[in-house]
Design goal:
Elements: H1 2-10, H2 16-45, H3 62-69, H4 71-104, H5 110-122, H6 125-139, H7 145-170, H8 173-181, H9 186-215, H10 218-223, H11 230-240, H12 245-278
Length: about 280
Amino acid sequence: MAARADIAAAAPRSRPGSQRAWLAVLSIAILSFLCVPILIVVPMSFSSAQSLQFPPPSLSLRWYESFFKDDRWVDAGINSLILAASASSIALVLGTLAAYALVRGNIVGRRVLEGNFVAPMIVPSIVTAVAFFIFAARLRFLGTFWGLIAAHTVLVGPYVILLMMAAIQSFDQRIEQVALSLGATRLQMLVRVLLPNLIPTALAAWLFAFIISFDEVVVTLFLAGTYYTVPKRMFNELILQINPTITAIATLLIVFSIVTAALMALLMRRGGLLRFGSEGEP
């Protein structure tokens, strides 16, 4: 025992401070590597050059002006907004109902259903796109905007379900039982008790679904037909020619994603505080 104690005392002890320092350095290195494309694309979007050139010879807003004055890009942006807003809204309603049924309901084969809902997140996009293409062709809504909305709803639904399941599981079920015992119907309890506490998480889930739908390109290429979204037009433009307008659009999408992610984090934090307070804690 004494020998073991001497060995343990002689062994070098790891310093928590040094470990945190190495972890911080590694995190900064990984973040810097991931941000390299952004550090290149953003300055190029303000370039006055006729083609892609880094570093830019001088600064200009010509490519942003080219984007906002081109009706094709404006129409694609409107289509993307309508598509993403419609798909995320439908997914939020259906996903919340499905999440509540999975969490609170006594459903046979619950694990199978959960796996089925999560499948679009696991299956490769190209496989999902081919499946949607065949399905839409058989039902004759291939190339329609409604078919595109339905496909995007299926794609973003799993994210909504997972977020809402976590929110419902963290909500104290005893509060629901008290409301029901006081004479409230199941619908009244959902509308007046549960849903108000889920609003922050629901908004975060909607924003998350909106971003995923807005950025989707593979399924859109298969199903959109003559409809153009921003990612689809960007893909087609890169095939035909290297247009510097793409860098301006990419910068706008980066800013939009950062702002949306910040809002999601704020809403999720707010949702956690509301659920924490609902359990009787200060």
